[in-house]
Automatic annotation (TrEMBL):
Transferase recorded as keyword: yes
Protein name, per record: Sensor histidine kinase
Keywords tagged on the record: ATP-binding, Kinase, Membrane, Nucleotide-binding, Transferase, Transmembrane, Transmembrane helix, Two-component regulatory system
The keyword Transcription regulation is assigned to this record: no
Length: 577
């Protein structure tokens, strides 16, 4: 499409082109402003939604912890022989001291599971005996003040409604704590946690430079300690946004705990978005300045540039119509004469571009394979860290060394492997590392056996294929009820005059569900909406792209119980990718 007339005639004035340019530029500026504002709003909404979901997950976890601890203390008071022995025995007797030690050990384990921030105490009213039954995370003066308050609370007839049915904030030595008192006859079990400790995980979230997290009681007062002067100012609402009409700089997320008389409040500050808006306005202003400058430039170079370009366009039209080379001898610009040669070179480049398009399609397939190949579930890494942390708490140093080394080997193999095919021996070694990691987690819940042939070790297969099905076996077959056997065997088969490697993965678990097995056997895709079956479907797609139906996967359930997956690969991988 040509902007200038095909034949010699009345030329368009420069104003015509300036108007077109200004119209396009003005439209682009408006679109840029709309898109920028929409982008800021969308990012803000998504960030707020993410923080709300995070708060909901946190609240649900704390509600579960509160409910379990409350139930555990109630059951201990009502049914545990330890408490009955302590209630009947004298405080200086051997039976009382032995029961006290057992109770301390039990609640120490409970504290390890739910965090050192939880403090546990018991009080026997008729013996006036008050003592902690787990390691303390509060200072001794706070302990003495708490003891006085708890003893006074036990005199209240409404202690059941006030402290047992709800987790209630109390004020001890200028600090707020959350307390739950479980009464049974004249015995009481108490759980206490600092308000600041309760919201410590939420304070680790990035809520903006001026964001804050706090606990609010029924009187809408903050019962958590502000962090620095900034958070104090936030609680007093002294922050004023720079652009209140364009961007709302503050969003408040509030969530109520169940069985508690307080709630968590997250104040999200979006000062960064105001800076983005200012930057967008500066960009628009800069574009306007550039547009005015271009208008002056176009007027200045009208006779020196536009007219020679019009002549050049006419010559190109002659080339398009008659097929003969254009004549640039009368051109006043040497650059336009050079453009003739570049135009001829361009024709040759177009031919090469067609070949490049085909090659880019192949690259696109490679990228798709790499994406599916390198998908890693982040929760696996977090589980590894959690296991190492648990071992550290139990002082299992040798197990920590082995677990750390296995985890390092596991992720080194994943991150350093950028090929489409790897040796079968390396893939099986990676599976061993994965199973060793899982054995640290499940202990004696499963055993595994790997059988491989020497002449099949150098076969090349796609990476992480075996791990997908081994991981599926661990996820769905392994339980802590009975020991599960996981087996991996490699054999050789000649099919259609071609050497094939047969890899069989089986387990002694419950096997595939009938509905899932029916879809796998018939080749229908599995439902991935809930985040399950992604690994199996990705593996099937990878094998289809790499082998073009020369590889085969068979799914089934064993007669003696358990799932069985058989993979058949050619000895020599295809070279198309």
């Amino acid at each position: 499409m040509r902007l200038l007339p095909k034949k010699t005639g009345k030329p368009y004035p420069v104003k015509h082109y300036v108007n077109i340019m200004l119209f396009i530029l003005f439209t682009a500026l408006i679109l840029d402003f709309i898109i920028s504002y929409a982008s800021i709003s969308i990012v803000k909404q998504q960030s707020t939604r993410y923080l709300r979901d995070t708060a909901d997950l946190y609240i649900n976890r704390i509600n579960h912890d509160f409910a379990y601890i409350n139930h555990y203390m109630g059951w201990t008071l009502a049914n545990d022989e330890i408490m009955k022995t302590m209630d009947k025995s004298q405080t200086a007797s051997t039976e009382f001291l032995k029961s006290n030690t057992q109770l301390h050990q039990r609640f120490t384990e409970l504290q390890k599971n739910y965090g050192q921030g939880y403090n546990f105490f018991f009080y026997i009213k008729n013996k006036d005996f008050f003592l902690n039954c787990a390691p303390l995370s509060i200072q001794y003066p706070d302990y003495l003040e708490l003891k006085k308050q708890v003893i006074s609370y036990t005199q209240d007839k409404n202690i059941y409604e006030r402290f047992y049915s709800e987790w209630t904030p109390i004020h001890v030595k200028n600090k707020y704590f959350i307390i739950n008192i479980v009464p049974y006859n004249d015995s009481y079990l108490i759980c206490l946690i600092s308000a600041d400790e309760l919201i410590r995980p939420l304070r680790a979230i990035n809520l903006g430079e001026n964001g804050s997290v706090s606990l609010i009681n029924e009187k809408r007062e903050s019962i958590s300690t502000p962090i620095g002067a900034r958070e104090k100012q936030l609680q007093q609402n002294t922050f004023k946004p720079a652009l209140p009409s364009l961007v709302q700089s503050q969003t408040t997320v509030s969530r109520q705990f169940s069985n508690a008389s307080f709630r968590v409040q997250m104040i999200i500050r979006f000062g960064t978005f105001e800076k983005i808006m200012v930057a967008q306005l500066l960009i628009i202003l800069l574009a306007l300045i550039i547009a005015l400058t271009l208008c002056v430039v176009m007027l200045y170079f009208n006779k020196r540039v536009l007219k020679p370009i019009q002549s050049f366009s006419d010559n190109l039209a002659q080339l398009s119509e008659g097929g003969r080379d254009p004549d640039f001898e009368s051109s006043k610009l040497i650059e336009l004469e050079d453009a003739n040669l570049q135009f001829k070179i361009l024709i040759e480049q177009i031919k090469r571009f067609k070949i490049d398009i085909y090659e880019k399609e192949l690259d696109k397939q490679r990228i798709q394979l790499d994406y599916m190949k390198l998908q890693i579930k982040p929760h696996f890494f977090l589980n590894c860290l959690t296991n190492i942390y648990s071992m550290a708490q139990m002082q299992m140093y040798k197990e920590i060394e082995h677990m750390t080394l296995s985890t390092s080997k596991y992720f080194r193999y994943i991150f350093q492997n950028g090929q489409n095919f790897v040796r079968l021996k390396d893939e099986i070694d990676h599976v061993r590392v994965f199973l060793d990691i899982q054995q640290h987690r499940y202990r004696n819940a499963f055993r595994y056996q790997i059988e491989e042939l020497i002449d099949t070790q150098d076969i090349h297969i796609p990476p992480l294929v075996l791990q997908t099905f081994i991981e599926n076996a661990v996820k769905y077959a392994v339980s802590r009820v009975s020991e599960v056997q996981i087996s991996l065997s490699v054999s050789r088969l000649i099919e259609h005059h071609e050497d094939m490697a047969v890899i069989r993965i089986s387990d002694s678990g419950p096997g595939f569900a009938p509905s899932i097995l029916e879809k796998l056997v018939s080749g229908h895709p599995l439902d991935q909406s809930d985040g399950n079956h992604i690994g199996i479907m990705n593996t099937l797609q990878r094998l289809e792209l790499l082998y073009r139906r020369k590889a085969e996967i068979r799914f089934g359930n064993r007669e003696e119980g358990g799932a069985c997956v058989t993979l058949i690969f050619p000895f020599h991988p295809p070279e198309s990718l």
